[in-house]
Amino acid sequence: MEEMEEELKCPVCGSFYREPIILPCSHNICQACARNILVQTPESESPQSRRASGSGVSDYDYLDLDKMSLYSEADSGYGSYGGFASAPTTPCQKSPNGVRVFPPAMPPPPTHLSPALAPVPRNSCITCPQCHRSLILDDRGLRGFPKNRVLEGVIDRYQQSKAAALKCQLCEKAPKEATVMCEQCDVFYCDPCRLRCHPPRGPLAKHRLVPPAQGRVSRRLSPRKVSTCTDHELENHSMYCVQCKMPVCYQCLEEGKHSSHEVKALGAMWKLHKSQLSQALNGLSDRAKEAKEFLVQLRNMVQQIQENSVEFEACLVAQCDALIDALNRRKAQLLARVNKEHEHKLKVVRDQISHCTVKLRQTTGLMEYCLEVIKENDPSGFLQISDALIRRVHLTEDQWGKGTLTPRMTTDFDLSLDNSPLLQSIHQLDFVQMKASSPVPATPILQLEECCTHNNSATLSWKQPPLSAVPAEGYILELDDGNGGQFREVYVGKETMCTVDGLHFNSTYNARVKAFNKTGVSQYSKTLVLQTSEVDIKKLLAVAWFAFDPGSAHSDIIFSNDNLTVTCSSYDDRVVLGKTGFSKGVHYWELTVDRYDNHPDPAFGVAHMDVMKDVMLGKDDKAWAMYVDNNRSWFMHNNSHTNRTEGGITKGATIGVLLDLNRKTLTFFINDEQQGPIAFENVEGLFFPAVSLNRNVQVTLHTGLPVPDFYSSRASIA
C-alpha cells in the first residue's frame, strides 16, 4: 500500500487529493489547486470567439504552443503571452513532487464562496502540471470537469488503513485489539469476547467473520454514490458514450452533443472496463514480479562480484608471486653459472701461471748455466758439452712455442643475458578477457608439398587459411622427442618456414604448428609425421651428407665448392662448423688438405654450436679436436694438450673423423691410419663437425662415407 501513496497525491500541493477533478488529459488535480493555477487568456482566444470563427469543435480547446509560445520547459522558467503587454510574465514554481506549475498572473478577486463555487475569471486557461497541455475553460469554468469520486474513495480507504488498530467493542475495561469482525453483527471482537459472545454454533455459525482491516473497509463503504452529469447537474449518469469515452445522462442523449453518438448501458461498460483493467493488471503484475526477481538477481550479483573480486585478486597476486619466484630461481641458476665460469677462468689462468713460472725458472736456469759455460776457456771441455747444450736450448725454445705464450683463457665472460623477450612478455602481460572483442587467428595449414627431411634435419612450411580475416602476429612450431613423447617448442616467430637440425637418425617425429596474436593462440594444425634418414641396422652406422654452415661460421672464413671447401682470410685461427648435428649413431667424414703453406696447425674435430669461433678449436670446453702440423699431432679439449703423436700432414693429406655416439668415443685418422689412441671418451650430447684454420690452409669436406673396415669389424667383434 505504501508504494501507492505517490499516486494519491496532487502534483501541485503535494498532499492527498481533495475534491479531485479529471482533466481532459486524464490527469487529476485538486479543485482548489486548479483554481490557483488558472491564467487569463486574450479575448481573441476565448472559446466564444473560436466558435464564432468556426474553428472550435470542443468545449476544451488546447492551445497551439508552437504558435503561441505560451509555456515551454526549455525556457528559463518564465511563461508569457506574446504580443500582450497587459499579461505580465510570471515565474514558474515547483510543487513538492518536483512538477513545474504556473501560478496566476494576479491574485483572484476576494469572494465569500467556497473555492469550488467561486466564479472563475472570464477567458481562463489551465495547464496540466504533469503533461503541460493547456486548455481554455468555457463558461462553466472548473465545474465543467468531472469529479474523480473513485480516487476519493481510494484515498479514504488508504487513510483508514493507516489509522490506529481497531479495538474490541465488547471489552468492558481496557479494550483489547480486535482480531475479527462479524459482517452480519457489524461488531469487532477480540478472541476472548468472540468465544464468549459469538460462539460458532447455532444461528451464529452462519455468520461470516473477516479480519478487522477488511471489516473496517466494508463497514465504511457507504452505498455507492450516483454521480451527476456535469452539463445537467440534476440528472444522474445513466449511459456511457463510446465515442467520447465518458458517462452521460438522459438529457445529454436527447438534446446534448451526445445525441448522435453511440452509447451503451452504464453497468455493462462498468463491468467491461473492470475486466479490461484486471487483465491489464495481470500483465503488469507479471512484469512487477519479474522486476522483483531481477532486483534479487542484481543484489546477488553485487555479492558475487565482491567475492569474485577477492578471489581474482588473490589469484593474480599468487600468479605474480609465482613469476617472481621463478625469476629469482632463474637468477640463482644464472649466478651459479657465472660463478662457475669465474672459477674456471681463474683455475685455467692460475694453472698457466704456475706452468709458465716453472718453465721460466727452468729456462732461466739453463740460460745462466749456458752463460757460465761460455765463460770457460777450455776448448776441449767446452766442445764436449756444447752439442748437448745447443740441443737443450733449441728444445727449450720449441717448448715455448705452440701457443705456450698465448693466454689459454680470455678475460671476457662469453655470457650474454638476453632479457628482451622476457621484458617484452612482461610488458605484454595483460588480461585476455579485456581483449575478447578481438578474435584469435585461424588455425594454420601445413603445406605438405614443401615439408621434407634430409639426414637428421626436418624442414616444415605452413600458411594461414585463404579466407582468414584475423592476422597472426607469429607462429609456434612444436615437435615431439622422436619416441612419441611430449611436444616441445622448437620455433617461435613470424616466419612460415623452419628447418630443425640435430634430430635423431632413423626416428619418427610428430610436428604441429599454431598461430598467435595479442588475444590468444589458435587451435593446433593437423599433426605431420616426419621420418629422418635411416640407419644401417647391422652396423648401427648412419650415413649423412652435409656441408659447412656459413651462418654459424666466423666472418673471416671463405666458402667455395657449394660450401664444401673452406679457407680463411686471417692469419689467426678461425672456426667453421658443419650444418648437421649428431646426437645418436656412428658417423664418419673426411677432410682433404688442398693447400698447406708455412707449416700451420689446423685442427679437426667436433664442437657444440656455441663454441668460440675466433680461437683454435679445442681452446675452450665446447670443442674436442686434434691439431696437427707437418711432423706431429696433439689432442686438445679445454686448452689441455694430450697424446702427442708423431706423423703430420702435407698438401693432399686426408684427415678422417669418427664419432661413435653409441660408445661415446671420438677417433682421428690420417691417410686411412688411426692417429694415436682413441682421442676422447664419454662424449655425449649434440655435436657438429668442426674445423679451425688460417689463411695458410684450405680443406675440402667429404661426407656420406662408410666407416673404415677395420673399425667396423672391431665394432662387430666387440
TrEMBL record:
Coiled-coil stretches noted in the UniProt entry, renumbered to this chain: 288-344
Highest taxon, organism lineage: Eukaryota
Listed SMART domains: BBC, BBOX, FN3, RING, SPRY
Catalyzed chemical reaction(s): S-ubiquitinyl-[E2 ubiquitin-conjugating enzyme]-L-cysteine + [acceptor protein]-L-lysine = [E2 ubiquitin-conjugating enzyme]-L-cysteine + N(6)-ubiquitinyl-[acceptor protein]-L-lysine
InterPro entries: B30.2/SPRY, B30.2/SPRY_sf, Bbox_C, ConA-like_dom_sf, COS_domain, E3_ligase_FN3/SPRY, FN3_dom, FN3_sf
UniProt domain RING-type: residue ranges: 10-50
EC class: transferase
Domain Fibronectin type-III: 440-535
B30.2/SPRY domain sequence ranges: 525-710
GO cellular component, one term: synaptic vesicle
Keywords from the named record: Cell projection, Coiled coil, Cytoplasm, Cytoplasmic vesicle, Cytoskeleton, Metal-binding, Phosphoprotein, Repeat, Synapse, Transferase, Ubl conjugation, Ubl conjugation pathway, Zinc, Zinc-finger
Domain COS: 374-432
Protein localization: Cell projection, Dendrite; Cytoplasm, Cytoskeleton; Cytoplasmic vesicle, Secretory vesicle, Synaptic vesicle
EC number: 2.3.2.27
Pathways involved: Protein modification; protein ubiquitination
Molecular functions (GO terms): ubiquitin protein ligase activity; zinc ion binding
Domain (B box-type) ranges: 163-212, 224-266
Description of how the protein assembles with itself and partners: Interacts with SNAP25.
Protein's recorded name: E3 ubiquitin-protein ligase TRIM9
Organism of origin: Camelus ferus
